[in-house]
Structures are given as C-alpha cells and as structure tokens.
UniProtKB/TrEMBL annotation:
<dbReference type="InterPro" id="IPR001387">
    <property type="entry name" value="Cro/C1-type_HTH"/>
</dbReference>
<dbReference type="Pfam" id="PF17765">
    <property type="entry name" value="MLTR_LBD"/>
</dbReference>
<feature type="domain" description="HTH cro/C1-type">
    <location>
        <begin position="43"/>
        <end position="97"/>
    </location>
</feature>
<dbReference type="GO" id="GO:0003677">
    <property type="term" value="F:DNA binding"/>
</dbReference>
<dbReference type="InterPro" id="IPR010982">
    <property type="entry name" value="Lambda_DNA-bd_dom_sf"/>
</dbReference>
<dbReference type="InterPro" id="IPR041413">
    <property type="entry name" value="MLTR_LBD"/>
</dbReference>
<dbReference type="Pfam" id="PF13560">
    <property type="entry name" value="HTH_31"/>
</dbReference>
<protein>
    <submittedName>
        <fullName>Helix-turn-helix domain-containing protein</fullName>
    </submittedName>
</protein>
Length: 280
C-alpha cells in the first residue's frame, strides 16, 4: 500500500488518493512485478543514466547494437569478461562508475573482479571503525590479512604473541623463514603443513592471478615449504579452529579459538580477512 492519509470506516482503513487493492490481488501484483536483478537490467539502467543510445554504446564497445538489445532483453547468454570490461570502460567514460556498480555488473555476468590490489591499497581501504575494532578485540589477538597472507593491520596482543610477524609482514614468510614462529607455535610442523594446504586451495581458486604463483615460487626457497607443497595436499581455511601458542616470555602454553572471515569492503570484496584468536 502507498503511504498517504487514511481514515477508519467500520473495521477497515481507507487510504485517501488511491483505490483499495485486496490483499490477494496486491500479493499477485508484487509477485509479477518484483524480480531478481539481471545483467541486462543493470546495463540498461547504467546506459540510460548516461544518456547513451544502444548504437553509441555498441560502437564504442566494439559490438553490434542488436547484441546490446539482446543483452538488455535477456535474450543472449551472459557476456564474457572481455565484453563486460569493454562495456564498463565505455560507461565509465561518460560518468565514473562507483565500485559497487562495477562489482554488481561483473557479478551479474558471473565474473569476479580480478585486479589484485597491493597491500597498501587494502590497508587504505580499512575504515577507521575497522581499525578501532582491532583495539577493542583485546585481549584477543586480532589482525587483518589479505589472501596472500600479508598482514594489513594488527592489535598489540597479536604483535606480542607472534613476535617477528610484524617485521616480516607476511604470515607464510614468517611461518617458514623465522625461527620465532617455531618457538611460539606448539604444533609448528602440522600447522605449517596446513598453511601450505590452504595456500594451494587459494591458488586453485585464483588461477589467473600471478601474485599467488609468484608467492609460491618465492616460498620455494624454504626446504620445509617445498616438501609440504610436493605432498599435493589441499584444504581451505575453516571459519573456526583451535590453535596452541607458547607465550614468548613465560613459555606458558595457551589454547585459542581461531576465527577467520572476510571483512566488508565495497572496493575490495573478499580481499580483507579478519583473523581473531580468542583465548579459551
């Protein structure tokens, strides 16, 4: 029902300025009119907002006007990445696309954003509230990392419990190249093997991103990494697991519940991961 002035007559409310629609009829109308977003609908909206004709968009994107028409009507299969990127470039020329608009059009085409942001770009995308959240998580160990294991930010509890990681800057580099990692991780051998299996799963999920293969090649200088990689095992980071750490000062062994999950980012979806280690 539309918002407006109303008055009560008997047991019913009558809305001024429009005819009454029965509940069943209104539900049928909603079912007919409200549909899930499609690539064609999103493309048409972005094109109309910029005042492009189908012919102009087609010409600048290097496709035919009939193809644009078919896309917008949902009469063609979802386009490939090359076509979508070309359409995005053309739409962006007239009026810049927001990160959400670009992401939405790619996802409606069944594609992912493939540009791999640098750690500095990801760090800049973390909001002040997200930075402050790390402080508030204490005494839990908390950090933001990217899929390559680069540490983007961490609280003091994290830095104290994992000495050397702040300086190394990368979880994998620290795991295999820093003796302090072996000192504080009670189950270093099995944990290192898990890290390799998780990295293999990440590489398989992102086969077109050279940053991951470059990381694997770089880690190959560590014999333990090469040995674990050659085993061929694969796994994916669970949302919750347990982990034991040895206090670097007292030597006391503590058990943690480790939680991992993506942090909201409009610009870089699924690229910033929160690692939270809660003492048990």
């Amino acid at each position: 029902m539309l918002v407006g002035d109303c008055e009560r007559i008997g047991d019913e409310w009558c809305w001024e300025g429009r005819s009454s629609v029965s509940g069943d009829a209104e539900r049928d109308w909603v079912a007919e009119e409200i549909t899930a977003p499609t690539f064609g609908q999103a493309l048409r909206r972005l094109r109309d907002e910029r005042g492009f004709s189908r012919e102009y968009l087609a010409y600048t994107a290097g496709v035919s006007a009939s193809y644009i028409t078919a896309l917008e009507k949902g009469e063609r299969e979802k386009p490939g990445r090359a076509v979508v990127e070309s359409l995005l470039r053309c739409l962006n020329l007239m009026s810049p696309l927001t990160p959400s608009e670009r992401r939405h059009l790619l996802e409606l085409a069944g594609l992912r954003m493939t540009d791999t942001p640098a750690p500095g770009e990801l760090h800049a995308a973390i909001t002040p509230d997200q930075h402050q959240a790390l402080v508030l998580f204490a005494p839990a160990l908390a950090a933001y990392v990217d899929p390559c294991g680069n540490v983007l930010d961490a609280n003091d509890a994290w830095n104290a419990a994992l000495p050397g990681l702040l300086e190394d800057g990368n979880v994998f580099e620290w795991m295999f190249g820093n003796e302090l990692a072996r000192k504080v991780q009670v189950d270093w051998e099995s944990e290192a093997r898990r890290y390799v299996q998780w990295l293999r799963g990440t590489v398989g999920r992102n086969p077109d991103e050279p940053v991951f293969t470059d990381l694997v090649n770089d880690l190959g200088r560590f014999p333990e990494f090469r040995a674990s990689w050659s085993e061929g095992g694969v796994d994916f980071i669970p949302p919750v697991r347990t982990h034991r750490l040895r206090d670097p000062q007292s030597g006391e062994i503590r058990e943690y519940s480790v939680q991992a999950g993506p942090v909201y980012s409009e610009i870089y979806p699924d690229r910033i991961i929160l690692l939270l280690c809660v003492p048990i």
